[in-house]
Sequence to fold (463 residues):
Amino acid sequence: MKITKICCIGAGYVGGPTMAVIAQKCPHIQVTVVDLNEQRITDWNDPDIDNIPIYEPGLSEIVAEARGRNLFFSTEVEKAIDEAQVIFISVNTPTKTYGKGKGMAADLKYIELCARQIAKVAKQNKIVVEKSTLPVRTAEAIKSILDNTGNGVQFQILSNPEFLAEGTAVTDLLNPDRILIGGDTTSEGEEAIKALVDVYANWVDKEKILTTNVWSSELSKLTANAFLAQRISSINAMSELCEKTGADVNEVARAIGMDSRIGPKFLKASVGFGGSCFQKDILNLVYIAKSYGLNEVADYWEQVIIMNDHQKKRFSSKIVQTLYNTVADKKITFLGWAFKKDTNDTRESAAIYVADDLINEQAKIAVYDPKVSGNKIQSDLNYLETRSIEENKDRVVTFDNAYEACKDAHAIAVLTEWDEFATYDWQRIYDSMHKPAFLFDGRNILDAEKLESIGFIYNGIGS
Ligand code: UDX
Ligand code: ADP
Fold:
């Protein structure tokens, strides 16, 4: 089968960039991205390309090239499903906030809704591709819904997990380490796998396209994220020990990273990992392990999350302790709110939790982030439901200029590793602050020696 029409349900951080790159690399394929959220679709179609809803380096150029040619953004979900041969499901699967598995299991209500919509609309055979990270054996649930509520047409379910990282989505999509496609081992399953392999083969080396059974593919995604997050929790655990012993975690990371068996990547000690994947996927792994009665396996992976929560708490406690055990009504400026640089995504960002702790201590928080709006910052805090909306508004002020944000602050905390922070005129910032001027570098991106020579009391992670 030759694919000429693709539909993607979900125009978010995964669906948007992935489909933009498929459309750019496969001009012969019509790619339609649909979403229930009308505002999101309007934003993707904004004539001013800088207004598209997701910030990723290089993304707007690709959208500008393909949009209107073979890339379309629409709210007509049913029409797009009906026309496509392949339907990607890229809807969000947050951790459940209610009922059985609350706080651990993935909430599959959006996935189920998609499956029911596809079943209702499809009049021809379709390939349905799971793109969102899903718990192992979700494909089975999707298949059951499709087969039992559909119009008698055949569905092939493939798992094609996304390995892109936000902030580098475009380069990750253009030059992936591998593409993973899981499918049934029947001849129809193999035909569906081949059809999807041929799409990626337009720009990815065939040797990098792995095919497996559906369950291996689903579990590989959770495993990859669990291993990556574990590296961060491991180095963060060492950062605390370094602070006690006089070792420097940056030096330790460099030393161990040169061991080719360990490797240098993903060893940056930080205020803690954030993002929509790591915590959610590990909690999911823990939940699956528990549901099979594998308590030791569950406890083993849960520790990665416990360590991460500890690292965030440790950072806020350090700020309070260093500021003479009281931050009440002191202005503390956050540089960065996004969960990492080069993205406007704030899901599970460490900044949210650190701010929450400091507000509990009655601090006044000022925030500057180059890509995150004040409304988003307020809604992130309100989502925690720790206090009233009015109180959050009263305690947190946002700025669109870092120098303004830092004026009269008692302390600055770097929460995101945006490159621009290292280029600031730090003398000017120092001069405008309360003295002593404290700086807590939650990402170890600033030059400690230089800042100390200006007069800052500098605190990094793990040294
Ligand atoms: C991750 C995976 O990398 C990606 O393959 C998967 O598809 C989705 O989840 P993402 O969450 O976008 O991607 O970003 P990632 O670069 O992995 O960073 C996650 C968090 O870890 C960020 O908060 C980042 O700042 C933090 N981090 C990363 C560290 O604290 N130290 C490091 O060394 C690396
Ligand atoms: P991710 O990081 O996984 O891409 P996002 O939240 O950025 O997550 O994007 C998921 C998108 O999926 C959202 O824009 C949401 O509106 C959309 N969505 C969820 N359920 C459906 C559905 N049944 N039909 C269409 N779009 C949906």
